[in-house]
Design brief:
Oligomer: single chain
Mean pLDDT: 80
CATH topology of the largest domain: Beta-Lactamase
Helix content: 55-70%
Shape: globular
Pfam families: GAF_2, GGDEF_2, HTH_30
Keywords: Coiled coil
InterPro entries: CdaR-like_regulators, CdaR_GGDEF, GAF, GAF-like_dom_sf, PucR_C-HTH_dom, PucR_C-HTH_sf
Family: Belongs to the CdaR family.
Protein name: GAF domain-containing protein
Radius of gyration: 36 Å
Number of strands: 18
Number of domains: 5
Number of helices: 25
């Protein structure tokens, strides 16, 4: 029996030996890749397999082994990226947890600096705190520095990277500190940096309410460029350091209050509880963003924390998302919901002051600002007024919301990176070269082989940037091409899709009121016609500017008659044309002669109806005799209006007058009944 078992065991080992691939076999290399990944070996161990791969004979097995090794290296890179992000997340969470049990502020700041340096893999890390009495910054916590002189640096507001970050309240990085001329150098500071051999530096501000409380730095002793992720994670740690400093100051105030009198105990307890609540709220916000929370998650968390309704609106005042403390995230309205005018005005004040603004006692707004300008705002409705800590939580929520909106905008910009080049190429390229943009334009939902329509809106440089962001939110990236062109916004879409695009643009223009004017061009059958369509649209806008029209989108066909006649004409030239053509019938732009305007409207209706008095009377809801009396009055003011050549000029002038002053002519319909009786009694002016 034992001999039989031994024989079977030996047979198994021989079979295994036969099945195991030889070291030079590609299958052995593939297995080695899997084993190294399983052991979480260093990347160098995987790279070392390339030498074995090079010594293998060419063939399909070698190609497969090469592909397996490449995939293994890719998996290793992804694992390292995930590990780096996990380390960043853990550092953020651990630091946020430390803030809830602050004992020694200096120790907390040292921990933050140490974590920042380790997380970014830098040679030196340090934190400078603002001294309000001396109005400068001093180094309070360091890690990795070996020079005592470096730890005694004091920097004024107008000197060094520290002063630059404090003045601009934004991150700053440099790969060549000594040769960087974007900030003011100091010999003492440069000597201290040279003593540490620091070549590259990155600093982020510590913002506390409306002031910079300090600056968090990391530096390297070699030339290095810092990535967006590194800047973001350092900014988050800087925000936590700011909270630590703020919380420490609150604790010091509490201890001073206890020393002064026992009667302050109750207030101190409440203040401590509020501080803990603020720290917990900041921890929740930080953790929420760190794990990829979006706007609905932020709104819901703030609504429950503050006990009310929180809404995020864009810079135009349209609500993007909203949540209630009890009902949770609200279902958005199909056309969006606009905040009230009082809230929109309060947002403007909040942008100027940098703080939240309360209006109507129980309603508060806080502007969201980032990048190159405003991103929108937070609107809060609560059953009771906010206290200081609640307002602080609300403002911190606006800051975090700004980060989320910036990340969202960055993703959108990456998707639309070549849209401006495609659009301007189609509009400005010479004829016959548009086909090279066909495939790129189709990616954004525009087929250049189908009829297209060009829309041009003139609203000012700042307005164009805002409109582009709002259109991106409403239309996405697959409905139209749009971009800025000086003080105008260009929108290109296929004619069949233009109506929803136009409706979305009009919704975005709601808050611009009377500051814009736009033209919707005629359909263009081929891309080669777009440059001419763009030129015609610009001429139409120039004419509308001369007429003083604002707040409306005009169809090109509505202006086609006047553009060739009044090309490059200004307001004075058009006024001269009215005076010369209409004579005494023209009341002038500054007067309010109702009778003359009524006569002008009557004559325009008569000419539009082809000299058919009965039809004109019906269109004006007048009796035929009243119409004849008005025509006699018109003849008294403009005797030659029936002459063939003059009739055409007068007809054009009247239509252009109505285009310039639509409100005055529109008022004729509402005043027709009131004016009819008095006009019958006074058929001619001056009678």
């Amino acid at each position: 029996m034992r001999d039989s078992a031994a024989e079977r065991s030996g047979g198994v080992r021989e079979a295994a030996a036969v099945a195991r691939p030889a070291p030079g076999d590609p299958r052995a290399l593939e297995g080695e890749v899997v084993r190294l990944l399983h052991r979480d070996a260093e990347r160098q161990a995987l790279e070392a397999l390339r030498d074995r791969l090079a010594g293998m004979p060419d063939g399909a097995d070698k190609a497969r082994a090469s592909e397996t090794l490449s995939m293994g290296l890719t998996v290793k890179d992804r694992l390292e990226q995930h590990q780096q992000r996990e380390r960043g997340l853990m550092a953020v969470i651990e630091t946020a947890q430390d803030l809830t049990r602050i004992v020694d502020i200096d120790e907390v700041l040292r921990v933050i600096v140490r974590r920042a340096r380790a997380l970014l893999g830098c040679d030196v890390g340090y934190l400078s705190v603002y001294d309000p009495e001396r109005r400068d910054f001093y180094v309070r916590a360091t890690d990795g520095a070996f020079s005592e002189r470096f730890c005694t640096i004091r920097v004024s507001l107008d000197t060094g990277v520290c002063g630059y970050v404090a003045r601009h309240r934004s991150p700053y990085s440099s790969s060549d500190y000594a040769g960087d001329g974007r900030f003011n150098h100091s010999r003492f500071i440069d000597d201290a940096m040279r003593g540490e051999n620091i070549a590259s530096i990155l600093g982020v501000p510590l913002l506390s309410a409306d002031e910079v409380s300090g600056v968090l730095f990391v530096g390297d002793r070699y030339v290095r460029a810092y990535t967006a992720w590194e800047i973001s994670i350092l900014s988050t740690l800087g925000a936590q350091a700011s909270v630590a400093i703020g919380n420490a100051r609150l604790f010091e105030q509490a201890r001073d209050a206890l020393a002064r009198a026992e009667e302050t105990n109750e207030r101190l307890s409440q203040q401590t509880a509020n501080t803990r609540a603020a720290a917990e709220a900041h921890e929740q916000l930080t953790a929420l963003v760190a794990r990829g929370g979006d706007l609905p998650d932020l709104c819901e968390m703030l609504a429950r924390r503050l006990g009310g309704r929180v809404a995020v609106c864009d810079e135009g005042g349209r609500e993007i998302v909203a949540a209630h403390a009890e009902q949770g995230v609200e279902t958005p309205a199909p056309e969006g919901r606009w905040i009230e005018d009082a809230a929109y005005a309060a947002l403007g004040e909040s942008r100027r002051t940098g703080r939240s603004v309360t209006y109507r006692k129980l309603r508060t707004v806080c502007a969201i600002v980032g990048g190159e300008g405003p991103l929108g705002g937070l609107v809060l409705h609560t059953p009771r007024p906010l206290n200081e800590v609640a307002a602080r939580i609300f403002e911190r929520g606006a800051m975090v919301t700004g980060v989320v909106l910036l990340l969202k905008a960055q993703r959108t910009l990456s998707l639309m990176s070549d849209a401006p080049a495609v659009l301007h190429g189609l509009v400005h390229e010479p004829r016959g070269r548009s086909e090279r943009f066909a495939q790129q334009a189709e990616k954004y939902g525009v087929d250049i082989h189908r009829p297209m329509t060009l829309l041009l809106v003139r609203t000012g440089k700042d307005g164009c940037a805002s409109l582009c962001r709002q259109l991106t939110d409403r239309l996405g990236t697959s409905s139209a091409l749009f971009d800025e062109a000086g003080d105008s916004l260009i929108v290109l879409a296929n004619t069949l899709r233009m109506e929803p695009v136009r409706a979305a643009l009009q919704a975005c223009l709601r808050r611009h009121r009377e500051t814009f004017v736009g033209v919707v061009g005629d359909a263009v059958g081929h891309a080669d016609g777009l440059p001419k369509s763009f030129e015609r649209a610009q001429c139409c806008l120039d004419l509308l500017d001369a007429l003083g029209r604002r707040g409306e989108l005009f169809d090109e066909s509505r202006l086609a008659l006047y553009v060739p006649l009044f090309n490059r004409a200004d307001a004075a030239a058009i006024e001269g044309f009215f005076t010369a053509t209409l004579g005494k019938l023209y009341a002038g732009p500054a007067t309010h002669d109702t009778r003359r305007t009524i006569l002008a409207g009557t004559l325009l209706a008569y000419l539009d109806c082809g000299y058919n008095a009965a039809e004109a009377a019906r269109s004006l809801s007048l009796h035929i005799n009243t119409l004849r009396q008005r025509l006699e009055a018109i003849h008294a003011l403009l005797a030659d209006w029936r002459e063939a050549g003059r009739a055409l000029e007068i007809h054009v002038a009247l239509r252009l007058w109505r285009l310039r002053d639509p409100q005055r002519f529109a008022a004729l319909d509402t005043q027709a009944v009131k004016e009819r009786e008095s006009f019958d009694k006074h058929a001619a002016p001056g009678r």
